[in-house]
Amino acid sequence: MQDSQSRLAGGSAIVVARAASERPDTAEIERLADAAGYAVVDAVTQQRREDPGTWVGRGKAAELAERARELDADVVVFDGGLDPGQYADLVDLLPDGVEPVDRYRLVLDVFAEGTGDKRAALQVEAARLAYMLPRLRRITKVSQLSKAVEKGNPILDVEDRIDRIENELADVAELAAERREQRREAGQGLVAIAGYTNAGKTTLLHRLADDMRLDDADPEHADLTDSSPIEDRLFATLETVTRRGTLDGFGVCYTDTVGFVDALPHDLVESFSATIDEAAAADVTLLVVDATDDPERLREKVQTSIDAIGETEGPVVGVLNKIDAVPGDEDADDDSLGERRDVLADAVDDVVAVSALADDGIDALRDRVREALPTETATLSLTNDGDGQRTLSWLYDHASVDDVAYGEDVTVTVTARPSVLERVRAKTTDSR
Questions:
Q1: 209 and 154 share a domain?
Q2: Same domain flag for 362 and 387
Q3: How much is the pLDDT for 166?
Q4: How far lies 415's CA from each of 131, 284, 383, 412, in Å?
Q5: At 348, which CATH number?
Q6: Tens digits of residue pLDDT in 176-199
């Protein structure tokens, strides 16, 4: 078995897909294996119900073992989840050095390859260790557990490491919360972009942020502006990427959060809570969905996303993206998009149909975000002296200054977060 604390090192893989009632397709699991760095040397399909012992049945497992010997494969990748018992049985059946790897483990290792900041790396490691722990328990013999302490105990080592990571993540989460509060104190609106990977979240970020331009992107470049990949990929990173924007003079921080992934169990999704919290704690959460998904698939993705994000501080605006890619549906108001719009509307506070790639509907989305941000407009009276000028300068940095009139006093009309207005009212001679 490979070291549970190391990333998959690549090599050669046999992929296996199984379905109960139809011939399964291995294209997606092959793409996933490729993303993890494996060279797929064979693809095996099976049409049957799941076997509780080995997922594919002992006969097919024996065939896979022989095939792995013939091809000198490093891993056998199963397009589904292996429970600890299935994993242990397959370890016994496969040749020494050939590890069974299920879809969940493969997803985690692809995520691991994309981690670049501390929080993302810790979340991935915690999820991977939590995944491996029950499997280690099943394949570690009692005699091994009773070895002398100086020889180490792999299960206790993993448990200790999980505890240390959870403590580190608690500290990182506290720092993230402080950073959000600092942005709010600076008068910034917080907008989170969430949704499934490949829904177009990153393309949307490029449309909304002031310092990013879709037309300037090199389509061949894997990373754009500090780990914001422009192209949709099978899996993106767990990092949160934040960029500044402006809406009617009001400063906004747009944060592209982790993309949700198909077929991850809920307990693994919870391992990414430190990143998902960015979506839940925002003033506005944009839930981006792919308009090319059929309505039933769309409903599943929306529900999974809503469940993962949980309770939000602000409204959730559904963004029905890629409307230009729906055949015959170039118009966002086309009736044929109605069912998809209704599916999304059942779960969120509002829906805006867009094409981030074609820049269609983006202005309407900006207007909706601006409406949803927690701001107030007030007219303040400042002293016409040095103190008043310093307060006015501070307002330009922390609010949208709509109008300034000079007289005996300085009358200024501003739009800002309520907390910003509370802080400045104490310095004014009059306000309304």
A1: no
A2: no
A3: 87
A4: 48, 17, 19, 10
A5: 3.40.50.300
A6: 888 888 888 888 899 999 988 788
What DSSP state is assigned to residue 409?
A: E
Provide the 8-state DSSP code for 359.
T
Report strand pairing: 409-416 vs 400-406: antiparallel
Q: Name the β-bridge partners of 40.
A: 13
Q: HEC states along 266-329?
A: HHHHHCCHHHHHHHHCCCEEEEEEECCCCHHHHHHHHHHHHHHHCCCCCCEEEEEECHHHCCCC
215 and 354 fall within a common domain: yes
Evaluate whether 244 touches 210 at the Cβ level (below 8 Å): yes
Q: Which two tokens stand for residue 326?
A: 């729906």
pLDDT given at position 360: 95
Known binding site for Mg(2+): residues? 202, 237
Q: Which of 137, 76, 83, 140 is nearest to 106 (CA)?
A: 76
Structure confidence at residue 116 (pLDDT): 62
Residue 257 CA, chain-centre distance (Å), reads: 5
Report which residue type is found at 361: G
CB neighbourhood size of 38 (10 A): 25
CB atoms within 10 A of CB 44: 18
Listing from the earlier edge strand, what are the strands of the sheet with 430-431? 400-406, 409-416, 376-383, 430-431
Neighbours of 175 (CB within 10 A): 11
Which residues are annotated as part of the binding site? 195-202, 237, 256-259, 321-324, 355-357
Tokens 């302490």 appear where? 149
pLDDT tops 60 at residue 38 = yes
- Residue 305 and residue 260 in contact, taking contact as beta carbons nearer than 8 Å: yes
Instruction: State how many domains the chain has.
Output: 4
Both structure tokens of 338: 């109605």
Known binding-site positions for GTP:
195-202, 256-259, 321-324, 355-357
Nearest Cα neighbor of 255 from 271, 243, 266 is: 243
d(CA 303, CA 309): 10
The residue range of the domain holding 151 is 115-169
Any idea which residue has 């061949």 for tokens?
220
Helix (H, G, I), strand (E, B) or coil at 130: helix
C-alpha 406/C-alpha 385 separation (Å) is 11
61, 84, 111 - which closes a domain? 111
Between CA 305 and CA 299 the distance in angstroms is 10
Residue the block writes with tokens 């107030």: 376
